[in-house]
Amino acid sequence: MRLGFHVSISGGFSLAVQRAHELGCNCMQIFSRNPRGWTVKPIDPADAAEFKKLREQWDIGPVFVHTNYLINLASPKPDLFERSIEQFVIDLERTEKLGAEYLVTHLGSASGREPEWMIERVTVALNMAMKLHKPSAVILLENTAGEKGDVGYELQQVQDVIAGLAHSENIGICYDTCHGFAAGYDIRTPAGVEALAKEISTTVGADRLKGIHLNDCLKEFASRVDRHWHIGEGKIGEDGFRAFLAHPLFRHVPKIMETPKETDEDDPRNLKKVRSLQKK
Ligand code: ZN
Ligand code: MN
Ligand code: MN
Asked: pTM of the prediction?
């Protein structure tokens, strides 16, 4: 099983892959830049080359890049909407320059608007972005917790976006277990995991599932509150993750943890926990 963390790119991309390797990851996720600012420094070609060399040497892959947090592909504000499309394209180009396989994006949010309106908006944005830059990397749409006007909290909403795209060959999904649990997908039991697997298969289709964000959830089931927590220590719990990791639909999909990093012990503990839960 491919298992890794979201790691910091502080000091360069080659340092990020070293961090992943030292943690014992065989896949990883990064931001391509500061996720909370619009400014972008060009990627240093030597750093990108070293990044590619090291990940090959250590067999770390796939690499997921997560989009900038300021991007909102459903924004009702024309300026932000336009800027989000431009910035999404920048993230896509950087993903490809790094030779990363996937770019993960949230769908977007528009408080007070109906989901249908947002779905249409995101569809327009993604169609425009892919017209500006034909992707070679695969764009993964991530399900959300449904917090603060976010769309994409139901798998059917994600599928409605995909169905509206002019080109969907390079589109997949990244399923976040914390977001899904907060949005009402209960994976605490094998029956719940099976129901989720069935819903993925009948909406977006199992083939689109390219990545999993493996996070426990600090808040209650269906709370619509997105608070990631350590694996097995949140409301999903050990039994839930044991069932999830054992399911044939999820077993072989690369998994990235976006769990809190309060101390240096957190990542090794979470990694060990996942490995222990997937045994037997
Ligand atoms: Zn995300
Ligand atoms: Mn996530
Ligand atoms: Mn989250």
From this structure: 0.98
